[in-house]
Amino acid sequence: MSAHVLHQGLALFTFAAYEAGAWRLRRRGDRWPPLRDVVFGAGVAAALVPGAPTFTGHMVQHVVLGMLAPVLVVLARPVTLLLRAVPAAARHRLKRVLGSRPAGVLVFPPVAAALEAGSLWLLYRTGLYATSGDALWMHVHVFLTGLLFTTAVCRLDPFRHRAGLGVRAGALIGAAAAHAVLAKTLYVTPPPGVLLAVADRQAGARLMYYGGDVVELGLALIVALQWYAARARAEVRSSRRTGVPRGARC
Fold it and tell me: How far apart are CA 187 and CA 241, in angstroms?
């Protein structure tokens, strides 16, 4: 079985599992917004974007696979769906795993950012890119590290370990800076052990730089909206305690 066929099979199995969970919830009368099915399907479709023999084509695939697809998947809240769809015994075990210390370390935003950005530096600034070629493991790794980072920054699914908005925003800024510097180094010099046409390499580096900026702005918007919602909830709670209506304070 080719790596491409296996890649497609994994993506389609993941989508089928998500839809099975959503169907289970709706069958018993629970609400699950159909828009989340659409968003998850879009994330799976993005993960299936094929690569190309050029460095620019490779970078298109990795920006979509490692940045855009994880955002779409996280917006569909798959962990929430899983916890609601599985039987009670399995839910209890999953909650223990999600609440464990290793899970807390992995979803701590600075750690997730270091793993995601660090793995990209390792891939493109060592001989790893030259030796890995179009290996399936590389695509899976790029997607999973992007998914971990996006999960840690967005925090849309329930996790026992919390991180403040400041920590999440700082991790996002740090990861964005690491991506930008890496893209600039690729614009100047190719990955070790790889011969690339200058125009192709520079186009790929620009794509990594600006494409990454677009997705990171989307993540920043999600964090900003969460901050706004948290502030609004805090004002409501304060108004209930003091009896002073919202907006009435000087």
Answer: 57
Residue 65 resides in a domain:
yes
**How many separate domains does the chain show?**
1
Q: Is 32 helix (H, G, I), strand (E, B) or coil?
A: coil
Q: Establish if 173 belongs to a structural domain.
A: yes
pLDDT at 147: 96
Return the pLDDT at 4: 67
Instruction: Centre a 10 Å sphere on the Cβ of residue 121 and count the other Cβ atoms it contains.
Output: 14
For helices 109-124 and 165-188, the axis angle rounded to 10 degrees is: 10
Domain span at residue 94? 3-242
- Structural domain contains residue 250: no
Is 247 a member of any domain? no
- Give CA separation, 197 vs 36, 170, 200, 203, in Å: 41, 36, 5, 10
Residue 226 carries which side chain, given as an amino acid letter?
A: Q
Residues 111 and 77: their CA atoms lie apart, in Å, by 21
Q: What is the residue-wise DSSP string for 51-77?
A: --SSHHHHHHHHHIIIIIHHHHHHHT-
Residues of the chain with pLDDT under 50: 250
pTM equals 0.89
Note whether 212 and 67 are within 8 A (CB).
yes
Tokens of 121: 């530096």
CA atoms within 13 A on the CB side of 233: 6
User: From CA 20, how far away is CA 237, in angstroms rounded?
Assistant: 38
CA 14/CA 237 separation, integer angstroms: 40
Residue 101, SS3?
A: helix
The pLDDT, as a whole number, for residue 250 is 44
Residues 6+ apart with CB under 8 A from 202: 187
